[in-house]
What we know:
By secondary structure, this protein is mainly α. The protein has a domain at 2-30 and 89-173. 53% of the residues lie in helices and 6% in strands. It contains 8 helices and 3 strands, in the order βααααααβαβα. It is flat. Residues 150-155 and 159-174 have low confidence and may be disordered.
Amino acid sequence: MLFSFDRTTCEEAAYSLVAGLEEAEDQWRAMSPEWTEKIRAYESWKAGARQRVKQRERAAKQRPPEGNEPQNISDTSWEASFDPSEPSNDFSFAGNYVNVSKENVDHEIARLAQWSGVDQRALVALKRGIGIHHAGMNKGYRALIERYPNADSESKSLLTTTSLVGSVRDICAW
């Protein structure tokens, strides 16, 4: 958690941190054999999607043995949840959310993105686990920061004295 009395400094620090993470990530992705192999494996997995759907359809048509319910076959491979446009873990402070799924947080961020009063850079920062909290921020955005503290305490919040009013326990866990 970082603290500043000045809200402008608070925001500038967050945006500077995000820019540094994005630049380092871009350089790593351009040079990393590990990233290249991961993308190759992901593209190969995507290419086989039609075949997997057909296999599931065939399995669903087969009559299950008596007394057994048909199995719900879902893809649990890493590729199924991989999104190459998302920040890489090594370039993000975001971790596992307490009592809420990543999908719920992503939904909240998408909802906030539709509001004109939310700076898009703050939402990009939030996707990387960097929250900004001060009185000048959109109320919905501030509420999101307060509502979704992070379990691994690696996420960073840049705070002004506003965060000291109210639920300090929730903010400190973020």
